[in-house]
Write a structure and sequence with these properties.
Strand content: 15-25%
Number of strands: 18
Largest sheet: 6 strands, mixed
Low-confidence stretches: 1-37
Distance between the termini: 56 Å
Radius of gyration: 20 Å
Strand order of the largest sheet: 1-5-4-6-7-9
Oligomer: single chain
Helix content: 10-25%
Number of helices: 7
Amino acid sequence: MLRRILIAGAMLAGFATAAQAQVPGAGPASAPATATAATHNDYTDPATWLCRPGRDDACTVNLDATVITADGRMSKESFKADPSAPIDCFYVYPTVSNAPGGNSPMAITADERNVVMAQFARLGARCRLYAPMYRQVTLTALKANMMGKPMPADRVMAYQDVVDAWNEYLAHDNHGRGVVLVGHSQGSGVLIQLIAREIDGKPVQKQIISAILMGSRVQVPKGGDVGGSFKTVPLCHSDSQIGCVIAYADFRADSPPPANSLFGKGEGATVAACVNPAALGGGAGAANAYMNASQSPSGSTSGWTNPPAPVTTPFVKLPGLLTAECVYGDFDYLAVTLHPTPGGVRVNDIGGDVKVGPMILKNWGLHLIDANLYMGNLVHIVGEESKAYLAKAQ
């Protein structure tokens, strides 16, 4: 049963690392981010990258979607990347590795490919895509920790890999272009460190269009935008604002964070940031979700309608079903509300809960689908931010 949740919940597993990275004085955030020359990866080697422009790789996949309306009508939405996109996106993926040790090897597997497909490749409609491999803390290490048998894992090495990839990208690929940073869970934790140490207050900050830090606990002063995790990088409030952060963690509106929640927590005088991709200016907004077709609430590719109708695309869209709004209080989080259609043909749920058997682990919220829920919104935001960035650069 534990193995089932670890595999099915691959995208969420990096939170233990991500959380330590965000708490001042804890874990890798306070450890020296150094590595010996012998431990460095060679990021001039194309094999160390999941995604790079101009080649067939983990990002050049079929991203077509089936749009399903409440009455069950279906239509196909085709996807096309923009090979001439004027900006770049740089992605750090969450914990997905089932490698036996505490840190993953640099071998690309289906686990990395699948999460890139779900969380990042669609941004190829607006930007050139860069996604390095890194020796992340593994699912195996998480499992050992959950069983009370901690396994050695080098979080500093995982972070340093991303720093090395970032520096290689800046030196030989960026050429002064604007860039959007994208991460989830462990990936967001690594990027929080990268921004704080390598970007915040440094010359390269002017090239950062935004940072999308999903499933994270970015810290800000209560009622403020900057001064917690970052000194000079604020939260985003519109899709024309650049140099800002979109950070959030999701829970169902009818299942808010419990007392032992892993997300939405403040640290001392700061609170967890909540920026709603569905309504950057505040309030509620429609979540433009791209759900994995194979992960329907019924658990089958034909499970999005009743009676079942086959879905032949890798993704589905469910217009009108979801809205999201930030909620503030003991926990600050993004509340997702479903708007069911009584008697409709389309299903009235999305799945995404973290389960052990039939039991829902409510303290995880909807961490599994943080990216899926707003992928359409994020593609739009990145496109608008790109326009604002390019207009300012002229």
